[in-house]
Amino acid sequence: LFLGISLAALLGNGLIISAVACDHHLHTPMFFFLLSLSLTDLGSICTTVPKAMDNSLWGTRTISYTGCAAQLFLLFFFLRAEFSLLTILCYICYVSICKPLHYGTLLGSRACAHTAAAAWASGFLTAVL
């Protein structure tokens, strides 16, 4: 059950990433942040699922201190970046619905890159603290 759900999530996120990367019609701010959101989802899945599957299959309940610290750091990093990206996606939807004439000026490629970098940086800073 664990394996099936994680493989379905990995396959779905992989399809989103490959579709956005391959089709030039999908190179818009909405799909750029959807791609970033899929990357954070892949990261959080790859952080938690392997140890959880190890625990359930072999019946072990222990984790090393460094393994625990690494898993917590990566989980906080990916979850905070995911929350930031979801907030940005909400703002993009708001702009596209309520201010469609300002969409191109508010969400240019440079602004999207800076906003995505800020989302990933907030995840890193949260994980470090």
UniProtKB/TrEMBL annotation:
Q: Which domain of life is it from?
A: Eukaryota
Which spans are transmembrane here?
62-79
Keyword Membrane in annotation? yes
Q: Which residues form the G-protein coupled receptors family 1 profile domain?
A: 12-129
Q: Which Pfam families match?
A: 7tm_1
Listed PANTHER family: OLFACTORY RECEPTOR (PTHR26452)
Q: Under what name is this protein listed?
A: O14I1 protein
- Organism of provenance: Menura novaehollandiae
**Gene coding for it:** Or14i1_1
